[in-house]
Amino acid sequence: GLILTQLVRPGVPVRLMAYPSIMDQKYGCFTFACPEKVLMAAAMAQMFRYYGVPHAIHGATTRANVMDAQAGYETGIFDMFTALSGGELIIESTSSALEDTVLSAYEQAVIGNEICDMIYRILRGIDVNPETLAVDVIKEAGPGGEYLTHRHTMEHFRLENWDARLSNRMARDEWVENGAQDIRVKARKEVKRILDTHHPKPLDADVQRQLQQIVEEAEG
Q: How far is CA 74 from the centre of its chain?
């Protein structure tokens, strides 16, 4: 496809995409949700980078039929290792899909967003510079000192500490007092909040006209 595109119109912008999968030998069905998919996607990302081609690779997916532990560990593991493979763009990283894209659940997309936010923090790594080393703060606090109330902590902890929006961090007693909600319940509430409060504005009329013109020119 890439070669044919460049032969027809040399220099036209392209983006290659990789959707590797396997066939399950036991059940005779295809699946994206497998370690082999991650390995093939990583290999494709390396090839795309070698050839200098803009690209995207497939990220999270699950063969689970419901939002259960399988859906969580498959999407989390596959997103993490796909991100580590160095692809330019990960497709469906916050996918709402279940059953290998046969089903879709808003709650699964919200949970996927939490997973991706966590992965993004990991990929950001640790900045090592005079500001983050804070040697002056260490000297100021001294042996036996504390950093919790220091201005440096106040200025940095929100940037460095990942904020868990859905994941539980409460002790069991507090969690029970707050209704003992698992992540599916909290995801459902977040979906409702988004649907109730998010009202995207339509595109400007001028932008719509320009888009329509592009479509008409392409079809003509």
A: 13
Characterize 131-153 residue by residue with b for buried, 16 or more Cβ atoms within 10 angstroms of its Cβ, and e for exposed.
eeebeeeeeeeeeeeeeeeeebe
Tens digit of each residue's pLDDT (9 = 90 or more) over 95-150? 788 998 888 899 999 999 999 999 999 999 999 999 999 999 999 999 988 999 99
Q: How far apart are CA 119 and CA 30, in angstroms?
A: 27
Q: pTM for the complete prediction? A: 0.81
Directed axis angle between helix 69-84 and helix 35-51, to 10°?
20
The ranges assigned to domains in the chain are 2-124, 126-163
Q: Name the phi and psi angles at 197, rounded to 5.
A: -115, -20
State the angle between helix axes of 183-197 and 106-124 in degrees (0 to 180), rounded to the nearest 10. Answer: 100
Measure the CA–CA gap between 31 and 75, rounded to whole angstroms. Answer: 13
Question: Do the Cβ atoms of 16 and 5 come closer than 8 Å?
Answer: no
